[in-house]
Amino acid sequence: MNLTVEEKDMLEGKEGEGVQKAMEILVALGEIYGARDMIPITSSQVSGVSYKNLGDAGLEFLQDWAAKGARVRVPTTLNPAGVDIEKWKELGISKEFAEKQIELMAAYAAMGVAASCTCTPYMIGSAPKYGEHVAWSESSAVCHANSILGARTNREGGPSALAAAIAGRTPNYGLHLDANRKATLVVEVECEMKDYADYGALGYIVGKKAGNKVPYFIFKKNKKIKTDCFKTLGATMAAAGSVALYHVHGVTPEAKKQNMVMSYAEKIAVRDLKEGYAALDSGTDDIDYVAIGCPHASLDELAEIAGLLKGKKVSATLWITTARKIKQAAGLLVEEIENSGAHVVSDTCMIVAPIEELGFKSMATNAGKAAFYAPSHCGLKVRYGPLEKCVNAAITGRWA
What we know:
- By secondary structure, the chain is α/β, with parallel strands linked by helices.
- Helix content is 42%, strand content 16%.
- It has 16 helices and 14 strands.
- It has a 5-stranded parallel sheet with strand order 12-11-10-13-14, sandwiched between helices. The chain has a 4-stranded parallel sheet with strand order 8-7-6-9. Strands 3-2-4 form a 3-stranded parallel sheet.
- It starts with a helix and ends with a helix.
């Protein structure tokens, strides 16, 4: 790789052992993927935060890196942790798990990482501008940054995103390059999309067909689509496949500016969503847990949920996960939701929390990503469907 004088100094340890370790990771990654040089970044988003996923080995790795003097040099946020830092006791999380999670957070804090703990950093003031290069690692956030915002990032691993934050740069390959951002799969959506869950089902179908291709969507029957729908679409494609960038005809910034379809792109048509719904729904009619907010819920979603719960009480456990800043901005909406017995939960999500400790057996959700991962990551059976049906399941304890 062609390194600048400053980058060579970092690699040789002239800025300390912590920075040297970061550059070693980045140079190795660049050489694997054939990067010619490094490119400066404006922000980083780091996954690998939950103690459930990292364990003691991950905790020791981070503590060691921090002890070597590693400090981030660009604004850096964290993916969801394993617990809500403020209300883990109320949610039934064990003290042992919570204490380990807090140690992990302290290791990140020692390196200057903001304890935001959200998969939607773009909703809390950390949205990169069009064309900016960043190093993000949470798959749904990567998809949103590349597609909806027009920023540029590869799908980083947790260590490489942290290394990029410490060095302030990342190898210049993959989706940082113009040549790799054009669509290689055209998707004509011929059915009408009516609910967030529809976009999750679509994301499953296309993710499975696309793999790591770049889809280009043409929605035949939907002229206006909410950002939250794109959030769900991208998250499920990234989970079911490994999609890190997509375009929507006439909507996403790069698709507005130029022709983003390769001449050899494959074309498919989606006429209904049955395949997606069938694949994401594997549960029973008895529901003891309902999870909404994967990716984290927006203010608009919280308002919709508050309306559905108004004057009612839940019989199943209901978590609505969101960024702490969104929860704080929601004000009375949170009070209205929690008057029903539901929990508005920050810092974590249903997939990386130690759900196994809580004894749940069957979950209902409108989140395609959560429905995809919950059986394997949490041992839960899943019923998947529209938001209104999920809220009703929380109230009645039944999927009907």
